[in-house]
Amino acid sequence: MHMIDIITKKRDGFELTKEEIDYLIKSYTKGDIPDYQISAFLMATYFNQMTEQEATHLALAMRDSGDSIDLSEIKGIKVDKHSTGGVGDKVTLVLGPLLAALGAKVAKMSGRGLGHTGGTIDKLESIPGYKVELSVKDFIKQVQDIGIAVVGQSGDVAPADKKFYALRDVTATVDCIPLIASSIMSKKLASGADAICLDVKVGHGAFMKTEEEAVKLAKLMVSIGKLAGKKVTAILTGMDEPLGHKIGNALEVYEAIETLQGNGPDDLVEVTLAIGSQLLMDANIASSNQEAVDMMNKALHDMSAYNKFLELVKAQGGDVNVLKHPELLLSDKKVEILSLKDGYITEMNALDIGKAAMRLGAGRETKEDEIFLDVGIDLHKKIGDQVKKGEVLATFYVRDKGVEEAKNLLLEAITIGEHQKSIKLIKRKIS
After folding, report:
1. What is the assigned CATH class of domain 330-417?
2. Whole-number average pLDDT of the chain
3. Residues contacting residue 420 through CB under 8 Å, at least 6 positions apart
4. Which of 8, 37, 122, 194 is deepest in the core (most CB within 10 A)?
5. For the Pyrimidine nucleoside phosphorylase C-terminal domain, which residue ranges apply (predicted)?
């Protein structure tokens, strides 16, 4: 088998076989195929796309390029969720403990962030002492003991995907739906869960800007999961404004704690309940959507979900005492951003608000950038809210970095008009 033949076949729009894809992934992972040939393959795929079978074969080949986690020792149905990424998206911090408090088994491997703000692992590292690395043995034991573990993704999981993504990033082939779907699903399938719910974000602050694109990606990921023998559902959720009010690592931990104590913002709760109800049904813990929602609302208000979060943090070495005073996690230097006019907030460019948080140091522009865990943005107003000139739109938690630039980005990202407007958060479910 020769790589030039595979490139030619894909360039001419033909479907690759499982054997051809397996050869490509194994040889590239071993270093037997040079980057320039894989770059040519990626560009041919970008223009000619892939069938569902090809994308599935690619996901499975990348999964098999490294370690897969065997969770069979854990009794019951293991559940997992994945978000395609958004601004202020701290759903995992709320959903994981909530599901575990209701008896689900949550074995979660999460990543770091690049752009906007940090990833789930960066957020958890804002808790002093929290260990994001566990051995597979300890990871499995913790899920058995308390129902949940949240760790960083192992370097041995889907190494082919890491090599592929690095090339996609520099060859303008990142936004190719089959490559996105295969990348995400290779890691999800390697993580060992039985049931997966995909939170596919759509809007200004999401990778998928239109619902049409998001539906296409969601359908392909669901198809890959099902062809691989997993229960997979996708829920399309809006990202035309940040999720919740707080953006930044420790700030998002703070808001997750508020939510786990029954005082969370409506939009964060709505998304959490939509994903959680699907996974509780998949885990055979709830028999209907309404039963699942009722169970979760109870757990959010009787402190059982919050107590499970404390249990998780304690199990992974985190300082539980600081969580009882989460304001201690935040920078004590604050700047208030005031509205320049009267009216209603009609639009928020979530991406630019995420960039404003990044300018303050809450996210990374490159993998080497230092991230400040204690900085970020607390939005006091969202779409539909009335504002008056001189009223506080947001509070910045800052160090001596990027304040003026972040202020300008935020003010330009918020549109104030004369008429009140509302947005739909849960777009649709694909299963």
Report:
1. alpha beta
2. 93
3. 344, 384, 386
4. 122
5. 344-417
Q: Delimit the domains of the chain by residue range.
A: 3-48, 78-323, 330-417
Cβ neighbours of residue 54 closer than 8 Å, sequence gap 6 or more: 15, 16, 21, 178
What CATH topology corresponds to 78-323? Pyrimidine Nucleoside Phosphorylase; Chain A, domain 2 (3.40.1030)
Question: Is residue 246 within 8 Å of 254, Cβ to Cβ?
Answer: yes
Residue 204 has pLDDT above 90, yes or no: no
Taken as a whole, the chain contains a residue count of 431
Give the least confident one: 25-39, 86-100, 107-121, 343-357. Answer: 107-121
Q: What are phi and psi of 428, to 5 degrees?
A: -170, 165
pLDDT digits (tens, 9 = 90+) for 239-257: 999 999 999 999 999 999 9
Lowest mean pLDDT among 128-132, 279-283, 310-314, 362-366: 362-366
Whole-structure pTM value: 0.92
Task: Please give the CATH superfamily to which domain 3-48 belongs.
Answer: Transferase, Pyrimidine Nucleoside Phosphorylase; Chain C (1.20.970.10)
- Per-residue model confidence as pLDDT tens digits over 30-76: 999 999 999 999 999 999 999 999 999 999 999 999 888 899 999 99
